[in-house]
Amino acid sequence: MLRQVVPLLVRTPEREIAALGMRHVQPILDRGLKGERLTDEEVTRFSVWMSTVPVRDEVWGQITVETADDMLRLLTLVSRSVVPPFEPAVLSLTAFAAWLTGDGAQSLIAVERALRADQTYSMARLMLQMLEGGIAPSHWSALQAAEPVSP
Question: What is the mean pLDDT of residues 4-20?
Answer without folding.
Answer: 70
